[in-house]
Amino acid sequence: MADVLASPPKTSPSEPGPRHADPAGTVHEGEGPVRRDFLKLAAGSFAAVGVGVLAWPFIHSMNPSADVLALSSTDVELAPIAEGQAITVMWRGKPVFVRHRTAKEIQEARSVNVGELRDPAPDSARVKPGKDQWLIVIGVCTHLGCVPLGQKPTDPRGDYDGWFCPCHGSHYDTAGRVRRGPAPLNLALPTYAFTSDTRVRIG
Ligand code: FES
């Protein structure tokens, strides 16, 4: 009998907690450990959702916009470009020269002694395999960034039938390699791939 009287009352998690009064005298029923844990969990969940809602516009603003994504690659239809002609397309804010080379221009590019070039590169490294007639280069002079002439039929093409940069007199050949003047490097090659026999995707 003495044991029973000395033992504290037992409660299970499903039972209401003990009654207690706050300093104002209000009596609270059942605010035991279970309810306190629930309140803590709920507060934590609302905080996490709140941070997510606040962060979303910021994270979303870091994604590239649709127009930027569209500019990251450019599809070019080659069929309308006749042999000997060239067109200029814009890609990532830069002009890209697409030239349909003639057999003579390809021959000129191949007959060069690569070892004598300022920026040595064989013609085969400047075009895609089996697509020797298509030369695609970034149309920005590697000296100080002018756009070389040679795209229009009436343009001067320099001493090597490629492009001529009038800013300080750099000459590029039919593979876009620098041959004379202050430019230190060949015209750069953009990343591109043929998506069909007559179509390329630049970028
Ligand atoms: S920018 Fe082309 S030669 Fe100077």
Automatic annotation (TrEMBL):
Gene3D superfamilies: Rieske [2Fe-2S] iron-sulphur domain, Single helix bin. Its EC number is 7.1.1.8. Keywords: 2Fe-2S, Cell membrane, Disulfide bond, Electron transport, Iron, Iron-sulfur, Membrane, Metal-binding, Translocase, Transmembrane, Transmembrane helix, Transport. Residues 103-201 form the Rieske domain. Residues 17-31 have a biased composition (Basic and acidic residues). CDD domains: Rieske_cytochrome_bc1. Residues 1-31 are annotated as: Disordered. Binds 1 [2Fe-2S] cluster per subunit. The main subunits of complex b-c1 are: cytochrome b, cytochrome c1 and the Rieske protein. The Rieske protein is a high potential 2Fe-2S protein. This is Ubiquinol-cytochrome c reductase iron-sulfur subunit. It comes from Roseomonas populi.
